[in-house]
Write a structure and sequence with these properties.
heterodimer; A: 501 residues; mainly alpha; two-stranded antiparallel ribbon; 2 strands; B: 586 residues
Chain lengths: 501, 586
């Protein structure tokens, strides 16, 4: 029997950001304090709810909310191990990004619109995280598309509008493919809800159709997960303000795609069925191509945010790769990287935002000697960059290690050169930046720091960055602990594969 | 937390914390005061006997384990000593450096890595510290910012990244068949792994880059000399040995299934010992000569590993001999490097000049293996351990080792000449005691390690006290021959012969490697790349010109563009969602 609290908590988690959005839209531009207070309050409340759910779930409680949408078509929110990982990540990073955004947009225009859609975007992400069936997943997936669009075009420049258009074209198209897959699946399997281990065994004999459905669903998700060749929108969407890019790349859009692939493989098809359909190896190959392609393209970029965008394309595919390899180690790697990549990439984008906001530095070429003027930001950037390369003790090493080990355990030796190649490419595009920042002399001396500010830049920009940067370091240093992202991922993977490693 | 972990954590958290203290302006004065002494906890741990216990910290990294054992303890002893002396030396030597905080930051981080990897008993810890040492070491190499330093740094980092990639793949391949991340367990996996030889090759190469094995040594003669003098001392004295330690810990030495790899080690080691002596002799910078000498000496140590692979029954003893050799070389090499800095500040006082000359000559002759030095003891120990398993290799190496000693003598003669000549040109008046003392400590250790180490660590079989005439003779003739060749070679060169070979730059075959890469890259850069760039620009141009308004998406796109213009549109969207929710509830 599910108690009242247990049936309402998932809805409450979603409602915190929805209500925040509703309250923020009507606010006047100059009601800064009220808006900020609302934002922080909503974000804090969400963290509290997510914490309650996490603790309860680990205690063995079940959380499920069911709302009838149409007869036979329910909106279901439920908590399962993978959703917990994504939920926790989103809740924490939303809070951090909200603080950052308040600092970043201090004197910008249309802040009510921005923060309103920002909260809506998180609502959608939460909905995706908690979706208990395909229908719910789809609703929120589409809502995410629509809620993110105004954020991408926020600046209103021609470039932003074009980028937004591209973004919509891709994602709406992807959504349409997914809808097709969902309807098809509904037709052959009836209404199905996500459940650990897969729920399609009763139609397992209709192989051809299932393969078709898998391809449709995963292609739809691949758009948001930015898998080559469906990645075109992502680098263009870089015109968005830094906090949006940070959230887009670390939690919301790209992660939603990757998370969807994880859910569909583990909780819809189930590993044995997905493996028997022979769809996973092609997916692993697509992911590997994306990993290498993204890294090579990142190498060619001189704009810092664009370089980071291509790096995201590459890094998110690690998650997909881990999902596409059968075995508990690879699953651990995928789920851990879901969280690790979020922490590291959001740090990198925060840092890029700090450089742009404080010193108007946008290009890698302008970063000579920036470590002297902004040592804290650059220090955090360095930590996150080494994490992306996969150097211990930063978090990225742990996930890379498990992915590699998982691939070998599944006899997919070819994955190791992919991972190692990506490591070397990552070094090739991150290390020169780190070198220039710390060792080169700036072409012109940096402007003097603002006397009114205590640190090298506004503390609203610096603190969120420090929190995520240090978290990505601690996640790696204490990876062996039960409560680290890796520790949680290990437990989740063990449950999914029903065995302890 | 287990309290017994505290000393283990202290030995790398002290340098780590000092590094952070130096980094932050607020704590910098304290940090700078503590920094020179940061190696003390490690030194204390190496001196205090702690037994063979292994401590687990499962929450740390992927499950860290710490422990020592004889091999690691000896390693920690000489490594920590060199770091400690270099730290004290730096305090005076770097005093007026404009980038002092940066120097100390990288110095301390590198120290953290170098010390931490020695006490790590698991792969994740070892790899983590190894990488920290490698990347932080870069900061030491490029410290002075000259173009030579930048070039050295670039080649160093490229080779380092290749090395890390090799190690990562090697470890991963082994871990498949290992029961845990514990290093001995990982090495056990060599027995069953189907990728055993690939893993062997990867680990050999990955650590080989650090150890400067030919032809992976190309970064070393560039990088070691350009660093500030105390940093050169730790690079060549201590850090280079971490590659050797990697081999000792991660290779299945003592197993008789990898005999085929033995000759490769011996061959590579011999080539290194001889070729590096030749290349080094032609250098003009005393520190470059010393870097080549390191390559040459590491070659001798890899010969030991090769022998152990071919004759596994020499193994447990050979490990001790190799570490003993490494310790001797570490002390002597650090002493000569620090001596270069001391000689640069020659005093007017005769007794100080005499002291400098002797202080440079003692470790130099020890490296050459002159009789009654620690170097002779180390070389004899290596030779004796070959005798455990008499074979073709024993005879071969009994012949080759003295040849290598002739090479080292040449190098050392060249080094002394260059240093002392350069010294006489400087104008400093006094030799500061803060510079002299850490250097003299290392000089003393380089002279006496053959007696101190076997006594303190209770090793039997190191022939330190053998002074019989045959031992003196085997030590003496290569040195004498080397000096003779040196005299002949310099007099020939003075007459203007052999000018062609003297143009060999540091890094020797690096020039050839770069030429090869250039030949491969040039057509790509000149022909292929512009085409690809043009084509991709064309595609992007077509894409940007394409207007979705002329497509069936028009309605959708326009409606959303319109939506974006109005902030209130969000309210509308929310109203719809709100209505939906109410419907659902009903």
């Amino acid at each position: 029997m599910i108690s009242l609290a247990e049936s309402w908590l998932p809805v409450l988690v979603i409602a915190t950001s929805l209500v925040t959005a509703l309250c923020i839209f009507p606010l006047r531009e100059d009601q800064v304090r009220l808006r900020s207070a609302l934002n922080i309050f909503g974000a804090t409340l969400k963290i509290v709810f997510v914490a309650i759910i996490t603790i309860g779930f680990l205690d063995g409680r079940d959380y499920q909310s069911r709302l009838q949408f149409l007869p036979g078509l329910d909106i279901v929110f439920s908590v399962n191990p993978i959703s917990l990982a994504f939920l926790g990540l989103s809740a924490v990073l939303w809070f951090v990004t909200t603080v950052y955004a308040i600092g970043y947009l201090e004197n910008a225009e249309h802040r009510s619109r921005f923060f309103g859609f920002f909260s809506l975007c998180v609502t959608a992400t939460m909905g995706i995280a908690l979706a208990g069936n395909l229908f719910t997943f789809f609703i929120f997936y589409e809502m995410l598309t629509l809620a993110t669009y105004p954020l991408v075009v926020h600046s209103g420049t021609w470039k932003a509008i074009t980028a937004g258009r591209t973004y919509l074209l891709y994602t709406v198209g992807g959504g349409a493919l997914m809808l097709l897959g969902i309807v098809w699946l509904q037709a052959i399997a009836g209404p199905v809800e996500f459940s650990t281990g897969g729920v399609l065994d009763h139609v397992a004999h209709r192989r051809a159709e299932l393969i078709g459905i898998f391809v449709l669903l995963v292609t739809g998700l691949s758009v948001k997960a930015a898998i080559v060749p469906l990645h075109g929108w992502l680098p263009r969407a870089m015109v968005a303000p830094a906090p949006v890019s940070a959230l887009l790349h670390a939690v919301a859009v790209v992660k939603a795609g990757a998370y969807g692939i994880l859910r569909f493989i583990y909780d819809l098809f189930g590993i044995p069925l997905a493996a028997s359909l022979n769809v996973l190896t092609p997916l692993a190959i697509m992911a590997s191509v994306t990993i290498i392609y993204g890294s090579i393209r990142a190498l060619m970029q001189t704009d810092l945010k664009r370089r980071l965008a291509f790096s995201t394309i590459s890094q998110v595919s690690y998650i997909v790769l881990g999902a596409a390899i059968v075995g508990p180690l690879a699953t651990t790697g995928a789920i851990a990287h879901l969280m690790h990549q979020g922490l590291m990439k959001i740090t990198l984008f925060f840092c890029a935002g700090n450089f742009a906001e404080t010193l108007d530095v946008h290009s890698v070429d302008q970063m000579n000697g920036i470590g002297r003027r902004m040592p804290i930001t650059m220090g955090l950037f360095t930590i996150a960059a080494f994490g992306m390369i996969g150097a211990p003790p930063v978090a990225g090493f742990a996930s890379k290690w498990y992915l590699g080990a998982g691939a070998l355990a599944a006899d997919q030796v070819w994955v190791v050169p992919v991972l190692v190649g990506s490591t070397m490419l990552n070094s090739a595009y991150f290390l020169p930046v780190v070198y220039a920042a710390w060792f080169k002399q700036p072409a012109v001396p940096w402007p003097d720091p603002d006397r009114r500010k205590r640190f090298e830049t506004s503390s609203l920009l610096l603190v969120p960055c420090a929190v995520t940067g240090i978290a990505s370091l601690l996640a790696g240093v204490f990876a062996g602990s039960r409560w680290s992202p890796l520790g949680l991922a290990t437990q989740i993977a063990a449950e999914l594969h029903d065995l302890w490693i | 937390m287990d309290l017994s972990l505290v000393p283990w954590l202290a030995i790398f958290t002290v340098p780590l914390a000092s590094a952070f203290a130096v980094m932050l302006p607020g704590t910098r004065p304290i940090g700078l005061r503590v920094a020179p002494f940061a190696a003390m906890p490690a030194l204390a741990l190496a001196i205090v006997e702690l037994g063979d216990s292994v401590l687990h910290a499962p929450w740390l990294l992927l499950g860290a384990e710490f422990g020592l054992g004889l091999v690691r303890q000896m390693f920690l002893f000489f490594t920590a000593t060199i770091w400690f002396c270099a730290g004290i030396y730096s305090r005076e030597y770097m005093r007026n450096d404009p980038e002092l905080p940066r120097y100390w930051t990288y110095f301390l981080l590198t120290m953290t890595g170098n010390i931490g990897l020695i006490v790590s008993f698991d792969v994740s810890g070892f790899f983590c510290f190894f990488i920290l040492m490698t990347f932080a070491g870069y900061g030491l190499i490029v410290h002075d910012g000259s173009s030579a330093a930048r070039r050295a740094g670039k080649i160093y980092i490229i080779m380092a990244v290749i090395g890390e990639a090799m190690l990562l793949s090697g470890f991963l391949l082994l871990w498949q068949d290992a029961s845990s991340l514990n290093i001995p367990d990982l090495v056990q996996a060599f027995d069953s792994s189907s990728y055993r030889n690939i893993a062997f090759g990867l680990i050999l190469g990955g650590f080989g880059i650090k150890a400067g094995v030919i032809p992976l040594h190309i970064w070393l003669p560039l990088a070691h000399p350009v660093a500030p003098t105390p940093a050169s001392a730790v690079l060549s004295g201590a850090m280079i040995k971490s590659g050797l330690l990697g081999w000792l810990l991660f290779l299945p030495l003592g197993s008789d299934e990898f005999k085929a790899w033995g000759p490769l080690f011996i061959f590579a080691g011999l080539v290194a010992a001889l070729a590096a002596a030749g290349f080094g002799f032609l250098q003009r910078d005393p520190k470059t000569v010393l870097a080549y000498s390191s390559v040459s000496q590491m070659g001798l140590m890899s010969i030991g590993i090769g022998v152990a692979l071919i004759e596994p029954n020499t193994w447990p003893f050979m490990a001790i001999v190799i570490v003993f050799y490494a310790a001797h070389h570490g002390f002597a090499k650090a002493a000569v490097f620090l001596g270069v800095g001391v000689a640069g500040l020659t005093s007017e006082r005769t007794w100080q000049r005499l002291m400098i000359t002797i202080g440079l000559a003692v470790p130099a002759f020890s490296l050459a293996g002159a009789p009654l030095t620690s170097g002779a003891a180390a070389k004899n120990a290596l030779k004796d351990s070959l005798g455990i398993a008499p074979s073709f290799w024993e005879e071969f190496l009994t012949f080759m080792l003295p040849v290598a000693a002739v090479g080292t003598t040449l190098l050392m003669a060249r080094f002394l000449k260059l240093t002392l000549v350069r010294a006489s040109r400087t104008e400093e008046k006094v030799l500061p005691a803060r510079l002299a003392i850490p250097w003299l400590v290392l000089v003393f250790l380089s002279a006496s390690s053959a007696w101190i180490l076997p006594w303190y660590f209770e090793i039997d079989g190191i022939p330190s006290s053998r002074t019989s005439s045959s031992y003196i003779w085997t030590g003496l003739w290569p040195v004498a021959l080397g000096l003779l060749i040196y005299a002949v070679a310099t007099s020939v060169a003075r007459r203007g012969y052999g000018a062609g070979v003297r143009g060999i730059p540091p890094g020797d075959i690096l020039a050839a490697v770069e030429w090869l890469i250039e030949q491969v890259m040039k057509p790509i850069r000149d022909r292929l790349a512009p085409g690809v760039k043009r084509r991709s620009r064309q595609i992007e141009a077509v894409w940007d010109a394409w207007d979705p308004r002329h497509t069936p998406w028009r309605m959708l796109i326009q409606s959303d563009v319109v939506l974006a213009r109005f902030g209130t549109a969000g309210v509308l969207l929310l109203a719809v969602i709100g209505a939906l929710l109410i419907l659902i509830r009903g």
